[in-house]
Amino acid sequence: MATGAALMVVLSWAAGLAAAASVDTSPVPFQAGYMPLFGGDNLVRSPGGRSVRLKLDRRTGSGFVSKSAYHHGYFSASIKLPDDHTAGVVVAFYLSNADVFPRNHDEVDFELLGNRRGHEWRVQTNVYGNGSTSRGREERYLLPFDPTLRPHAYAVAWTPTAVVFYVDGTPIREVVRVPAMGGDFPSKPMSVYATIWDGSAWATEGGRYKVDYAHAPFAADFSQLVLGGCPAAAGGGARCAVAVMTAEFAVMTPAKRAAMRRFRRRHLLYTVCHDRYRYNGTVFPECDDADGSERDDFHRWGESKRVSPGRRGYKQQQQEEEEPRADKAAAGRPSTWPTIGTLRAD
Predict the structure, then answer these.
(1) Residues 131-159: pLDDT tens digits?
(2) 107 is catalytic
(3) Which residues contact 37 (CB under 8 A, 6 or more apart)?
(4) Which residue, among 268, 299, 240, has the nearest Cα to 144 in the 3D structure?
(5) 8 Å CB contact between 225 and 28
(6) Which GO BP terms apply (predicted)?
(7) I need a surface site. Which of 19, 65, 234, 293 has the fewest CB within 10 A?
């Protein structure tokens, strides 16, 4: 009885805190929440200060960073990507604290990867904690739309217990914190960054296709900038933490999980959770496929058998009953695929 009463007190306290505080997810003007990071006049603000254009040319890329660091929250930007030949171009929207913790930084990434003319952009997500860059947790996706025609929203919900990635309001990936992750889950305050830069060494088919500056400048437009977090300078107190964890963006309802499964079935190209080569058969503890139902949809190197990259067209979905492609290499992963460190891509 006493234990039950104590639990009721805790729940009542948490509910009171949540009611007293809410997370503001309305967009902020650039000047209110961000400042230029690098690039000089390759960063161009709109007259009203509500949007920013980041450009990459032969001289430099460009980027901006939040004025505050945050300890959990919801962070979003609507991004319109450059068209035409964009091989080697990387447009990133991410959280990081590498400036404060260079040896053991945390990071949560959206990296949008350009491609050859007529071929689709890719989206890559990643999560690092405590400098765990040697244990990359990459996933890579196609998009169900052409991201060069108009802005689309890319968002990260980061709480003490999970990281959820959203595209246009649909969750595409959830990384749930489990005890076995240890320090690999991001836990220190992070700033929010947006950049465009030359990723010729790896971004498009493992570096096979480089940035061609004959097509420069490459321009990415950022708008609808949301900084709905707990500012670290304010202490990131219990009231804000409870508000973040109980906010709509942090609660994964059955409907959200169903939408996430549909997206992943149709658009997930690669996941580290089914890559049996990269870490010699080791499976990360947060990977959830208890019944093994997903495994048959992936090759041993983590690439989907169901989803395949193609030319521009941005199919709404792959054929659900498509016959799985033959294993590309019965004896192992194709040796002709280019590499990103130990990760083979595309």
Answers:
(1) 988 888 999 999 999 999 999 999 999 99
(2) yes
(3) 62, 63, 64, 65, 193, 195
(4) 268
(5) yes
(6) cell wall biogenesis; cell wall organization; xyloglucan metabolic process
(7) 293
Name the one residue in this structure whose structure tokens are 């244990």: 135
Is 42 exposed, middle or buried (CB count within 10 Å of its CB: 0-12, 13-18, 19+)? Answer: buried
User: What would the pLDDT profile of 303-336 be if each residue is shown by its tens digit?
Assistant: 999 898 764 455 443 333 333 333 333 334 333 2
Enumerate the β-bridge partners of residue 173. Answer: 165
Let me know how long the chain is: 346
Catalytic pick among 107, 120, 138, 294? 107
Residue with tokens 């009542």: 12
CATH 3.30.450.70 fits 23-346, yes or no: no
Task: Choose among 219, 200, 226, 227: nearest CA to 41.
Answer: 219
Instruction: Write the pLDDT tens digit of every residue in 180-228.
Output: 999 999 999 999 999 999 999 999 999 999 999 999 999 999 999 999 9
Question: Does the pLDDT at position 77 exceed 70?
Answer: yes
Locate 288 and state its tokens: 């959830």
Rounded to 10°, the helix 238-246/2-20 angle is: 90
Look up the pTM and report it: 0.85
Distance CA 33, CA 26 (A): 12
Give residue 20's pLDDT band: very low, low, confident or very high (50, 70, 90). very low
Q: What token pair was written down for 132?
A: 């765990």
